UniProtKB/TrEMBL annotation:
Residues 166-243 form the GFO/IDH/MocA-like oxidoreductase domain. The keyword Oxidoreductase applies. This is Gfo/Idh/MocA family oxidoreductase. It holds the Pfam family GFO_IDH_MocA.
Length: 297
């Protein structure tokens, strides 16, 4: 076994920042499940919540962020963008690999600071762009690469901001563009071709419509909302052109298939000392597109 291999006898020791619904639902249980990773510590500003998550997964509850850094070689973030942007810089400077949520920060300037800190420190980074780790998404992108696309229609819609665990303060403040936009812009950029400009219209707290112009001359549109009542979340992309239509729809996908892939690829990147394509630099590109949409193109 080479030094770059991920050994089950040498799992990546990961500390988790955050103890909210998403930290509990995905990060903690995925990282604790292994075998490529081991959850060693949890830290959150609400100490009682961190202690509860840590106890559920056999990890330590860190009293401070610095203690968390001492207990791990990689840090996973499940906190609002502004908090991630602040602490990710500190973790990178401490030499820790980073598993980051999207968006990198609440604005373009903070996303740049995170990316620069990661590059200056030379640490591994990876983004939790959930759908990118599903085999069906990878098949769709492979098929899209062989198509000539003239235009695309897409949407990411749900009602989670109407109430419940995920109607959090930062989502209610910034709306669907900052939360859902990275997913859809990432997929359109990858499937249709590099996006060169984005124009947004509407209210991201209710419904926002994006028009994207791509490097190859194609045009795509994206509808985003977190405040529409639907039986379940709807993510759909239709690629249209002189060839047969290609449709990607997550309605029948089991997102549980994403987590083992995400965990294994992160651990492999950490052990190899090299980030994959879904890294902080990718997150910065998406943040640049979000910034364009906010500015009106």
């Amino acid at each position: 076994m080479s030094p770059c291999d991920t050994s089950y006898d040498n799992p990546v020791r990961v500390g988790l920042v955050g103890a909210g619904p998403w930290a509990r639902a995905m990060h903690a249980r995925t990282l604790a499940a292994g075998p490529e990773t081991r959850l060693t510590a949890v830290w959150a500003r609400r100490q009682e919540a961190a202690a509860e998550v840590a106890a559920d997964h056999g990890a330590a509850a860190a009293a401070t962020f610095d203690e968390l850094l001492d207990r791990c070689e990689a840090v996973a973030f499940a906190v609002p963008p502004a908090v991630q942007a602040e602490l990710a810089v500190r973790a990178a400077k401490a030499g820790k690999a980073l598993l980051l949520e999207k968006p990198l920060g609440p604005d373009l300037a903070s996303a740049r600071r995170v990316t620069e800190a990661i590059e200056d420190a030379g640490v591994v980074s990876q983004l939790v762009l959930t759908k990118r780790y599903h085999p069906a998404t990878r098949e769709f992108l492979a098929r899209a690469a062989r198509l000539e696309v003239t235009g695309a229609r897409s949407c990411y819609l749900h009602g989670a901001f109407l109430g419940g665990d995920f109607a959090t303060a930062w989502r209610l403040e910034h709306g669907a563009l900052l939360d859902l936009g990275p997913h859809l812009l990432d997929l359109l950029d990858a499937a249709v071709g590099p996006i060169v400009s984005v124009r947004g219209t509407g209210d991201p707290r209710r419904w926002i419509e994006l028009t994207c112009e791509h490097e190859n001359g194609a045009v795509s549109q994206a509808s985003l909302s977190g405040t529409v009542r639907l039986p379940k979340a709807r993510t759909r992309i239709e690629l249209l052109g002189p060839e047969e239509e290609l449709v990607y729809d997550t309605g029948s996908l089991d997102h549980e298939e994403c987590w083992p892939v995400l965990r294994a690829e992160f651990a492999a990147a950490v052990r190899a000392g090299a980030s994959g394509p879904i890294d902080a630099r990718r997150g910065l590109r998406l943040q640049e597109l979000l910034d364009q949409a906010v500015a009106g193109g």
